[in-house]
């Protein structure tokens, strides 16, 4: 059976033996998203016209002098060229003189480049609107908003705090430890200070069985994020759901929690896949560009495969990783560990106040590698990078499958999850409740 797996900006076709293929697990999208940008924009406009648990955005913006809109960075496929124009038009419908700052939510990622901003926002928005890229380490641009439920200090970008109206746009998909992306996540980690992100992503929270894809209630990471959004006075959100081709299929606008919850419920229904059967070999991806730009981000797709892979099995993940490892602290921690087990033991007792940059990502990768082997298929990144951090590398899927069979045997069953970040494995979700 030939299966297209997202890879970079296109896809990689893989050939899986029919007699060994247990299943191909994909989201069940209820309605096909329109190809036409105008029709996708209409979905957004309908959401803005029918806000959830909130007055219309134009009413919220009326009489205000300044507003800030949090938007996603280069690592997220939010179609801002479609979503931002109607959002900005709605904000200015009854207030043409409203000054708007677009605040790019980088979290702890590197700064978004000018070229990446142009690609995400488009020249018309860039030429008209003020754009600020969040820097989590710039103390001068952070304001203190109190203590998180976890006990960590809450620091938020001043452009999100010193404004008359705070709005956020984003998209909803399963998130490997926050439950779902979107909504409150625009504030924390999106525009929070690095000390706040470190506290929220501490070892004990990442290790929580409730910090998994599809899980919100009882998730300690989500609880901190909700508090941060409320403390920052996040007044309104616009969140969209995307299909496999990154087209808008649905949208929700309104109250930062209520509208987000409604969107999460829809995405949860479409993203659920049956995880009752496991396989010695699981093939997946990180959904292609922009999420497969580096190894750091590629960990996300591996977690769905982790829930489906037999103990001692092999995950084959297809990820271009054109941007390399994606985080020096991430790379150094893994490269400096004698084994994934040794790294997990070192992190396990680390208190919140000693959380290190990128710790959450290498903690999760070490957890995966402690149970299974991971082979990354990439022809755009040197093999030495993968091998230095306890991953294996293959230039083609065919080579990766042969390597996996050396461990599992030539007749091992195979599960394929073409987009690992787009699914919630049902058994894992139920266990995390």
Automatic annotation (TrEMBL):
<dbReference type="InterPro" id="IPR018657">
    <property type="entry name" value="LarA-like_N"/>
</dbReference>
<dbReference type="Pfam" id="PF21113">
    <property type="entry name" value="LarA_C"/>
</dbReference>
<feature type="domain" description="LarA-like N-terminal">
    <location>
        <begin position="7"/>
        <end position="214"/>
    </location>
</feature>
<dbReference type="InterPro" id="IPR047926">
    <property type="entry name" value="Ni_dep_LarA"/>
</dbReference>
<dbReference type="Pfam" id="PF09861">
    <property type="entry name" value="Lar_N"/>
</dbReference>
<dbReference type="InterPro" id="IPR048068">
    <property type="entry name" value="LarA-like"/>
</dbReference>
<dbReference type="InterPro" id="IPR048520">
    <property type="entry name" value="LarA_C"/>
</dbReference>
<protein>
    <submittedName>
        <fullName>Nickel-dependent lactate racemase</fullName>
    </submittedName>
</protein>
<feature type="domain" description="Lactate racemase C-terminal">
    <location>
        <begin position="278"/>
        <end position="425"/>
    </location>
</feature>
<dbReference type="InterPro" id="IPR043166">
    <property type="entry name" value="LarA-like_C"/>
</dbReference>
<dbReference type="GO" id="GO:0050043">
    <property type="term" value="F:lactate racemase activity"/>
</dbReference>
């Amino acid at each position: 059976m030939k299966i297209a797996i997202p890879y970079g900006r296109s896809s990689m076709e893989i050939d899986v033996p029919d007699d060994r293929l247990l299943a191909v697990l994909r989201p069940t999208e209820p309605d096909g998203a329109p190809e036409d940008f105008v029709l996708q924009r209409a979905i957004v406009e309908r959401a803005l016209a029918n806000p959830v648990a909130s007055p219309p955005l134009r009413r919220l913006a009326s009489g205000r002098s300044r507003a800030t809109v949090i938007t996603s960075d280069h690592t997220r496929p939010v179609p801002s060229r479609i979503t931002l124009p109607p959002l900005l038009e709605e904000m200015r419908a009854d207030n043409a003189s409203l000054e708007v700052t677009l605040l790019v939510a980088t979290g702890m990622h590197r700064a978004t480049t000018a070229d990446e901003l142009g690609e995400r926002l488009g020249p018309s928005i860039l030429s008209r609107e003020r754009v600020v890229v969040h820097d989590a380490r710039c103390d001068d641009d952070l304001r203190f908003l109190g203590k998180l439920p976890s006990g960590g200090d809450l620091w938020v970008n001043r452009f999100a705090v010193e404004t008359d109206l705070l709005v956020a746009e984003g998209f909803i998909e399963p998130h490997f430890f926050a439950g779902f992306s979107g909504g409150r996540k625009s504030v924390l980690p999106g525009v929070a200070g690095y000390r706040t992100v470190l506290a929220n992503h501490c070892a004990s929270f990442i290790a929580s069985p409730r910090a998994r894809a599809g899980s919100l209630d009882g998730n300690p990471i989500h609880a901190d994020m909700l508090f941060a959004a409320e403390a920052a006075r996040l007044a309104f959100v616009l969140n969209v759901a995307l299909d496999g081709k990154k087209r808008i299929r649905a949208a929700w606008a309104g109250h930062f929690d209520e509208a987000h919850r409604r969107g999460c419920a829809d995405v949860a229904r479409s993203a659920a896949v049956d995880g009752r059967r496991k396989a010695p070999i699981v093939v997946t991806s990180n959904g292609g560009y922009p999420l497969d730009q580096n190894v750091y981000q590629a960990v996300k797709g591996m977690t769905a495969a982790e829930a489906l892979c037999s103990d001692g099995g092999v995950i084959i993940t297809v990820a271009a990783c054109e941007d390399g490892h994606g985080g020096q602290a991430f790379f150094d921690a893994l490269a400096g560990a004698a084994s994934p087990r040794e790294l997990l033991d070192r992190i396990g007792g680390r208190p919140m106040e000693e959380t290190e940059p990128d710790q959450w990502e290498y903690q999760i990768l070490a957890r995966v590698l402690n149970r299974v082997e991971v082979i990354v298929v990439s022809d755009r990144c040197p093999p030495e990078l993968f091998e230095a951090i306890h991953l294996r590398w293959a230039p083609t899927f065919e080579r990766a499958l042969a390597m996996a069979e050396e461990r599992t045997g030539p007749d091992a069953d195979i599960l394929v999850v073409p987009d690992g970040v787009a699914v919630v494995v049902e058994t894992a979700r139920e266990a995390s409740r």
